[in-house]
Amino acid sequence: MELWLKKISENYTDTCEFKRLYHGRGENEYKFLTIDSIDEILFVQFYERSDLEKNITDTLKNFIQNTGHHTIIIKKRYNNETFAVLGEIPEEYFAIENGIKFKLNFFNQNIGYFGDMKNSRRFIETIAKDKKILNLFAYTCGFSLFARRGGAEYVANVDMSKSVLATGMANHQINGLDIKNISFWPYNILKAFPKLKRQAPYDIIIIDPPTHQKGSFIASKDYIKIIKKLPGLSHKNTILLACINSPKFSKEELIEMIESNTSFKFQNRIKNPEEYTNSTLKSLVFSIQ
Predict the structure, then answer these.
(1) Residues 62-94: tens digit of each pLDDT
(2) Does residue 1 register a pLDDT over 60?
(3) Distance of CA 289 to the CA centre of its chain
(4) What's the confidence (pLDDT) of residue 26?
């Protein structure tokens, strides 16, 4: 049995919740492949062109004969092509994480949900009660959803994309979460610090940037700019969750950057979900000592 097929067979459980069945990123032979179970949909992404695509697709058609999946959606990231090889792509669909729904769009390059942040979102939920939270690079506001469910007093979601923030607002409404005292700010974060300071200080600050967002953010040179602004956004009891997903940005480098430019000290690293084998995601918790 092929390694990837063995892994998805081991990881599969009959659940409506999102589950990464195979994470080839960071591996050698199948580094181009990820496979997700999203309720009744099997979602397959090819990050690079491969001669194995047809074989993998045909094998998955056989695989789902013994699962609860009715649809297989293929996304070829290398040429931005998305199509169903079995069933149809739904107009409305959701990923579910610990009972929270995320609205999806399979035709977008990123569909609206990143499952590797699951443990970090759960962490925020556990410390959010009565807290004022700044959520930088909010995307579709996953952290805000769990913070609100955890009893957060206020959340500021900041992202330069109005469309992802609109999805984030919809996500709150879909889950019956009150958006009173939840802000959705379409700001370029690097240019928005005077606006962010108006609600400062924050009890919790979350930084979860893209590694490279053309024209707006490059982690290797811009992350430090955010770090240097943290003293003006925080107080002596602020908790910082700093994240980065890049093989070129080490845990040690991020810790050094934060500790040498602020009063924050590293506390612990949140473990990635176990199915994200070889993931380069670092989610680091800091506090002021």
Answers:
(1) 999 999 999 999 999 999 999 999 999 999 999
(2) no
(3) 29
(4) 81
Give the N- to C-terminal CA distance of the chain in Å, as an integer. Answer: 52
Q: Counting beta carbons within 10 angstroms of the beta carbon of residue 6, is it exposed (0 to 12), middle (13 to 18) or buried (19 or more)?
A: exposed
Compute the CA torsion angle 208, 210, 214, 217 (nearest 10 deg). Answer: 40
Residues above pLDDT 70, as percent of the chain: 100
Three-class secondary structure of residue 25 per DSSP: coil
Peptide bond into 194 cis (omega under 30): no
- Please state the pTM of the whole predicted model: 0.96
Instruction: Determine the CATH number of domain 116-288.
Output: 3.40.50.150
Q: Quick one: fold of 3-90?
A: Transcription Regulator spoIIAA (3.30.750)
Count CA atoms closer than 13 A to 158's CA, side-chain side.
21
The answer, yes or no, to whether the previous bond of 201 is cis (omega within 30 of 0) is yes
**Cβ neighbours, 10 Å, residue 207:** 21
